[in-house]
Input
Amino acid sequence: MLVLGIESSCDETGVALVDASGQTVPRLLSHALHSQIEMHQAYGGVVPELASRDHIQRVLPLLRQVVQGAGLGLADLDVVAYTRGPGLAGALLVGAGVACALAAALGKPVMGVHHLEGHLLSPFLSADAPVFPFVALLVSGGHTQLMRVDRVGSYELLGESIDDAAGEAFDKSAKLMGLPYPGGPHLARLAEQGDAQAFKLPRPLLHSGNLDFSFAGLKTAVLTQARKLGADLPVRQADLAASTQAAIVEVLVKKSLAALAQTGLQRLVVAGGVGANAQLRVQLNAACSQRGVRVHYPELHLCTDNGAMIALAAGMRLQAGLETLQRAYAFDVKPRWNLADVTSPVSV
Ligand code: KG4
Ligand code: ZN
Output
């Protein structure tokens, strides 16, 4: 069964095709991505209206590229899937509109997918794929969550950020240091040359006794430090970046270990854009190998938003019997949508 996936929730247009025949993990046949990062950089963040317009221009050429790249034609598609939420309403509507129009024209079923379910399942496309059950650490630009995952569609929230997400903490701190958007990878690169012990920054909720996170205070502490440094900021920038990264990573690692201890599980899956962070991977690998815990990551290029994870999640939900295929093409999007709510079958 060939499943097309379209991602357009934020600033990346992604299209991918998976083969979800049988019960083995869907196989990625081809995928294509256009990142809008350069376009938004001039504004220091994502401009929603520009994002929507760019998705409109990119999605059809990417779609052609993916289908032709797999040596197939549109008539070969069995299901068309798209990101239904969460994300920017206008951006989501582009993917939803194109998916439903395409499916209607082909007379094929259409399926809305939860963006975070895509991230969470994305490590299944890597060579070292996880097996259920596991704890998932979802760390993206908009979300920081720990979940217990027993099978496809079973997502129990263990804890989450009560304010900023980890990616937001990276991005906002980077912006305060004068780094370009999106700050996460820039801050991480700068941190490689810095001393992580140079500045004492807060580790909020580290000892809270629960699995919630809070990152809003960190950016205030970074701002205070940056102001204190004044004209010295450029020469101490790498130290501040390394100290900021260390604070975020320490909280993510400690809370992940606490989630593993609480659930008694021995497997951790890391997903979302911040999962690309090298320090996070180093620290998690070290802490988990000491405890005999296996850690799984998506391939680096599938950490940030992409169409492959949407096609994959659609394929895995279909294989798990969680979806009734619909040939109803009226669509809506869900800019705000809790992952725990997709546990039961989703009707499109
Ligand atoms: O998952 P994603 O592509 O988008 C959302 O669904 O939000 O995540 C984007 C986030 C941004 O905040 C970006 O700065 C962060 O992931 N990110 C990183 C790294 N690469 C991407 N943060 C830290 N280190 C990185 N290497
Ligand atoms: Zn994402």
